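Fold this: HTH lysR-type domain-containing protein
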Amino acid sequence: MPSSTILGRLPGLRHFIEVAQQGSFRAAADRLHVAPSAVSKQIKNLELALDVDLFRRDRGRGGLELTEAGEILLFRCASVVNELTIAQDEIDQLQGMQRGHLRLGVNEVLASDLLPGILRDMKYNHPGLNFSIKVENTREIVQRLQEGDIDIGLGYNFPSSPEIETLATLRRRTYAITSLDHPMAQLRKVRLTDLDGEQVIFPDESIAMRQLLTEAMAQAGVSVHEVMNTNSFTLLRQMVESGIGIGIVFGRFLQIRRERISFVELQDLPFESPPVACCRMAGRTPTASSVAFGAAIRTIFVQYGG
């Protein structure tokens, strides 16, 4: 199919992406503010132009499913959307408008610790810059990177993959965190065995850190009282601050507003804390705003330890 013909199908591609992401013509139509019949027509025209079926329409399915051809097209569309975003960013800069759009995916704890200062400084230096932030676990961040929904991912435990380019990493120490009136609060370092008998607030089973802690305590013969578990480290820290138990975290926080929490380094652990990593998809041209963000992260990682 000639490239000029493909370019003529850009409206159809936009509709295709929405249908693939939403799983139905009606949901895609709602997102695009058009009639479902208009979406259906665009998809049919696109299928006729490409001479393939993009969706399976078998009765009895819970929703639309992509065919193999549809999956290939959706994967390639992510690159198309990324390049169009970059083109808009470059055109804006060429016109002296100093605009840009930075799309980030970030783990929750880093969203509150790292981002406020970085984005404040970027906004000061580039007043026309705006941001879209998705706060999610690392698996979902990787999926958004692959689909072209975000430019940069920031989090823990990124998988080793040739399609993911690591811009910067930071290895952080492991700490027990306590309220300021806890007997352990005045100590600088403790061993895992020193936590025996403590009231502990754990991350829940959806977070990889939980398994590391459970196995380490079993190996050391440490018995603690679990008073709470949560998938939110922000809530975990608030509960520690309130005094209902201690928590275990990777790294000190970089917040602008410091919480009333004491950090006590945990020594002689049978595992290394996973590094914080800043990543993007390899082989895609980065936007100017994502290059600036990567440079800011590298500077902080060089300056900051643990």
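Residues 1-8 have pLDDT under 50 and may be disordered. The chain has three domains: 3-66, 78-171+275-303, 174-267.
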